[in-house]
Amino acid sequence: MLLTLAWGSLFFPGLFALSTWALRRSRPEWTYADCVMISTRVVSSVQAVLATGSGIVIIRSCSNVVSDRGSGETLGTSSLAASSRQN
């Protein structure tokens, strides 16, 4: 999980910087604010597609999304889930 967080912390700012740079080079008549706005929307769109894809994977891998715990569960996550339900 920590590795995924680290890659996301590098990927999304990198995608933003790359798209801003590419827009500034391909569209020199656009202002910096225009390039930043479009780059923000590109990053947001990629995040939305990835979130939708992960949601579809979760829904398709569980028979009951509300009560299924999934196949990747460990003892630590199981006890954490059990303790949070008791409260």
From TrEMBL:
Residues 1-17 form the signal peptide. Keywords: Signal. Residues 67-87 are annotated as: Disordered. The keyword Signal applies. Residues 74-87 have a biased composition (Polar residues). This is Protein FAM57A isoform X2. It comes from Castor canadensis (American beaver).
